[in-house]
Design goal:
10 strands, globular, Rossmann fold, 293 residues, 8-stranded mixed beta sheet
Amino acid sequence: MKEIDIDKRIYDLYDEYCHGFLSRRDFLGRASAITVAGVSGLVMAQALLPRYAEAQTISFTDARIKANYVEYPSPGGTSGKMRGYLVRPTAEGPFPAVLVIHENRGLNPYIEDVARRFAAEGFLALAPDGLYPVGGYPGNDDDGRELQKSLNQTQLKTDMLNSAKFLGSHPLSSGKLGSIGFCWGGGTTNYLAVEMGAELAAAIPFYGAAPASEEVARIQAPLLIQSAEDDPRINAMWPEFETALKANGKSYVRYLYPGTRHGFHNNSTPRYDEAAAQLAWQRSVEFFREKLV
């Protein structure tokens, strides 16, 4: 189903569902009460659910990369241990390193694909699974969302911080570390920028929650902020965030992509905007090459 066929009210309900404010049952139930030009809102709602197999862009067998899962210590995290999807180029290293942080549902196939995309571009990429200490990504986003919501959020962020440090000190890493994250991962990328100071060389939050204004002074990494036009919850944070960035003399650039919705980079659902996603990806790769290589 094409994006133009889906009513904005369904997208708004989907946004509430994705962020845990509606259960799957309530999302589909409320959508079913809407009919547009003879098309049931339930049909539109079901079209928005992820289709990961169709969204893969880089195969795990791609000759340019090597991928495997790695385990590493995570003191102070959920369980003291973490697991991540580590993808390297087949060329001889070391490589600039990029941490790829998932949304609010664990390490799903879309995020693994993003890690492979970075490896294909010449980066050492690690996509940590915040759900690993409780069994890992469960194979579907509904259960993943509930699992992630149930975790101690401070410990979960500590797991991401430890993942960043593990990647930065990896033998295949050049020592230059960047972080990119989507939705929850975007907010966590901002968190890492605050917590890591000069240890983080670049940060790219995609539609992520802003840090508290009083924490912005601790950021040292240049920021590339990727924002959707139709994203009221996140965009409401921007004026205060920008004021704090300017007041503290921080290096940043923000792109607002016209006509896009929260999640526009995720090509597993119809919220995906191909033109905007490709442009945002090009800018992300160029930014990391400039700051990390």
